[in-house]
Amino acid sequence: MPLFVRKAYFCLRLSIIIPMQKAVIVPFLVLVLLFSCLAIPLQSQDLTVIADQLRKHVSILASDSLEGRGLGTDGKILAKQYIAEQFRSAGLEPYGDDYFQHFDLRIGLARVPASNVIGYLPGSDPELGDEYIVIGAHYDHLGYEYRGNDRVIFPGADDNASGIAVLIELARYFSGQRDNLGRSIIFIAFDAEESGLLGAERFISDNKIVDNENIKLMFSLDMVGMYRANEGLELIGMGTFENGVDLAREVASRTGLEVSKLTADVAPRTDTWPFGEAGIPAVHVFTGTRSPYHKPEDTWDLLDYEGMALITSYMTELVLNTSITNILHPTRRFERLLRPYGLRISPGIITNIGRSNHVYPDEFFNASGVFAFSTGFFLKFQFGRKFSLQPELLYDYNGSQSPAGTYRRHSVTVPLNLHLYIAGDSGGFVKAYPIMGGYYRYHLAGKDGGTSLNFDNQHPSGEWGINLGFGLEILRVQVAYTLRRGLTDLTANPGSGSFANVSYFTMGYKF
């Protein structure tokens, strides 16, 4: 259904609650209500005014006096107070007695205080008002460090004073549009994102406003200051709720914004992740890392404020539309991934570097090792959050020292490994796992010393074996140590007991 029609339908639903007591006044009130509902958010305003407001917020939050908004700094306290004052002046309802959700972090042996800043606006629809949309942005950054006698500040203008600035202006705008909101909106400035998404995790685990199942959608504004440099806006996770991708494109065409990327996966490196893990569709609103990411040069004067104003305009349309949509459901794909055995398939590339040799279980010696190498592709079949199967297709260069000199083979190897996730950090993007599986290796060619290997009758052309190891998965990168032990006798003499043995350092990348 077109955006204009959806808004008209919602406004008509609101209009029927006006008391029908005076036949002359009622039609006039209905027309006024419809006109106000169908007005285009921010598009009628001068975006230059919005850009100036955004510039003011960022210049304050990314100033040297706020010390990079690092954990334990006075500057971060000033930042949270500034945000709370902006929420108060915008007219948001407080989280409790004030706008703060306080919690403690343990950093080494120290306890460090932290605070989310939270305000909300109740929705006006009698049916949808008990459902919530969260708009969040983290306000913490890296603080400062000493280089010699100089204190070097990481101001974090794009990361993420830019997101906080847009959050404040969205709160101000929607506070003036209360009668047009269907669902309620929670605005959150998250703390401790840089420490592992801990502020978002704390809100999900200790949310005193609403039960998590009533949160239908979450937006994270994280690094939105480089619109033109990135040639558009990325919406990571827009496909986690029904019709989200179509809606994003429709609103983009109305506001003149360029959407450069739309995905159906929840971003793991920002505050969307704890929401996605809780079953809530979550969208990372993002313009890329072309700013001086995590560097002292990420200063307020480098940002694209006109682009940020356009993003603010776009988000008013997008959020208003999702607030009045009758049904806001996760996609089947997203729900399937949340099940204990939900399947996700990811391709990737992998490289193994190590040493290989022949072992002789019936002898008192083993052959010396030689350089070994393999590379190729894999498909990762992840079942829920607990385990995955990973078949691989590799070119394999392996061998051993031998009485004739060096024994070398060129092979195609097909491993099949089980990864069982046994540990990971709280953000969910670092996982530890043992590796267990098997492989089949087909030998294409080889030499023992200067003699070509005869795979017809002197050496087996195929080889079976087992894989064992331990690995870490860090976002899309796999790092592992793997052992491959052959179960097929390598000689033509049965019972001679010569078997391949390889130890690898493994690096993989998942697309």
3D architecture notes:
This protein has about 500 residues and is an alpha+beta fold. It has ten helices and 21 strands. The strands form three sheets. Strands 1, 2, 3, 4, 7, 8, 9, 10 and 11 form a nine-stranded mixed beta sheet that branches. It has an eight-stranded antiparallel barrel with strand order 12-13-14-15-17-19-20-21. Strands 5-6 form a two-stranded antiparallel sheet. The relative contact order is 0.10.
List the helices and strands and how they pair.
Blueprint lengths: L2 H13 L9 H14 L8 H15 L12 H17 L2 E2 L5 E8 L2 E12 L10 E7 L5 E4 L2 E4 L3 H19 L8 E7 L7 H8 L9 E7 L11 E4 L7 H12 L3 E4 L9 H6 L4 E5 L18 H20 L7 H7 L4 E17 L10 E14 L3 E16 L2 E16 L2 E2 L5 E19 L2 E2 L9 E13 L2 E10 L12 E12 L1
Parallel strand pairs: 4-7, 4-8, 8-11, 9-10
Antiparallel strand pairs: 1-3, 2-3, 3-7, 5-6, 9-11, 12-13, 12-21, 13-14, 14-15, 15-17, 16-17, 17-18, 17-19, 19-20, 20-21
